Amino acid sequence: MGEDLIPRYWYNIAPDLPRPVPPPIDPLDSESSLVDRLKEILPHHLIDQEFSFERYIEIPADVRNIYREIGRPTPLLRARGLEKLLNTRAKIYYKYEGSLPSGSHKLNTAVAQVYYTYKEGYGVVVTETGAGQWGLAVSIASNMLGLKSQIFMTRSSYLSKSKRVKLMIENGAEVYPSPSDLTETGRGFLKQDPNHPGSLGIAISEAVETVLKDPWSKRYIPGSVMEYVLIHQSVIGLEAMEQMRREGEEPSVIIGCVGGGSNLAGISYPFYGEAVRRGEKPPRIVGAESSLVPKMTKGVYMYEHPDTGGALPMIKMLTLGRNFIPPSIRAAGLRYHGVAPSLSILIIEGFVEPRAYTPDQAREAGLLFYRSEGILPAPESAHAIAAAIEEAKKAGDREITILVNLSGHGLYDQDFYGV
Ligand SMILES: Cc1ncc(COP(=O)(O)O)c(C=O)c1O
């Protein structure tokens, strides 16, 4: 049903950016090349996609079939209940990625990355996870394709999101609280503090170290930040473009929350690219972050390692620095220290407007959405809903059309809502 809406190609923003993404580099003091190391840890199809300048990348038929089986296209819905509650003339549409089996958009890239890993003959995927949305998606995709998965989960979330931990294990995944005693990186942090809350940056270092110990059977697959992750998430925006067209609508503003940037990029880049190619002004794009991890509003644009231990090459991005240990916020998917390179460029060039929301503002927006629409947004997505509500209120009597990415549901996030 609606299968014709599933795109045949992913969209890659590289040729449509105002300036190219600077290449990854090695730190000056590095003994061996970390850029070369990518070949030892990532599937080579994904390295090709990372540096591709092709605007459209064909979605393998097997991946497209899985997209259909997991329920793509996801619904585009109008939040009439919320509009009524806000007494606004703004139309609020949302793309509901929480309808996927894993409960979030993360499954779109998990399926693709596990598929390429399997195709290239490796048997194990290793990764990090914050709230567990990414880990759960990886465990489901690995199960579908018959691969093993090893998941380093930030300790603060491992303890507070135990339902997702159990679901991952049920899928056959091995889940370790990070920092763990399985890696040198983890042991170092545990020595400093045996109850270290962990961070995505530390968990990434642990995952990479684990792959480097056995590069013959393992591959590292990241949940955000890398450009190919953003490319896979373009299915969201490509579908939404066609769905909006069929409704006779065009968004005036597109909104998503920002952890590493993949769901915001996924929903907005296809709209941005189409406008730029036509020589038109792109729709406004708003990125919502947590005020406790203000990398977009307070970060510095510089070369930095994506992981805390410095196992990966440096990339140029807006960042709070790899040593930033975020507070143990419940919107754990927003705890990452940096923003994907292409999204960093669009923020600096003024195409993406960053906004920061406190946990209370996000919680209030999420509960308002629940009461008016019956869907409890993931804590991360609730930040995007807060921005949508702000936009609707600001519009006053103007009839604007808002498109917001509801990147996941929050049914396992009672720790955030207390309900
Ligand atoms: C539901 C949900 N939304 C958003 C994010 C943030 O990630 P990204 O910015 O890559 O979309 C996460 C990350 O874990 C998530 O679980």
Write a brief caption for the model.
With 419 residues, the protein is α/β, with parallel strands linked by helices.
Give the uncertain stretches in residue-range form: none
Overall strand count = 14
The number of helices is 18
Q: Reading side by side through the largest sheet, how are the strands ordered?
A: 3-4-14-9-10-13
Query: How many domain regions?
Result: 2
- DSSP strand (E) fraction? 15-25%
Q: Using the alpha-carbon principal axes, give the shape.
A: globular
Q: Rg to the nearest angstrom?
A: 20 Å
CATH topology of the largest domain: Rossmann fold
* Name of the level-1 CATH class of the largest domain: Alpha Beta
Taking the alpha carbons of the first and last residues, their distance comes to 35 Å
What does the largest sheet look like? 6 strands, mixed
Features:
four-stranded parallel beta sheet; globular; single chain; 18 helices; six-stranded mixed beta sheet; Rossmann fold; binds pyridoxal-5'-phosphate; alpha/beta; 2 domains; 419 residues
List the helices and strands and how they pair.
Blueprint: E1 9-11, H1 34-41, H2 44-50, E2 56-58, H3 61-69, E3 76-78, H4 80-86, E4 91-96, H5 106-119, E5 124-129, H6 133-145, E6 148-154, H7 155-160, H8 162-170, E7 174-178, H9 184-192, H10 200-213, E8 218-220, H11 227-232, H12 234-247, E9 253-257, H13 262-277, E10 284-290, H14 295-298, E11 300-304, E12 315-319, H15 341-348, E13 352-357, H16 359-373, H17 379-395, E14 401-406, H18 414-417
Parallel strand pairs: 4-14, 5-6, 5-8, 6-7, 9-10, 9-14, 10-13
Antiparallel strand pairs: 1-2, 3-4, 11-12
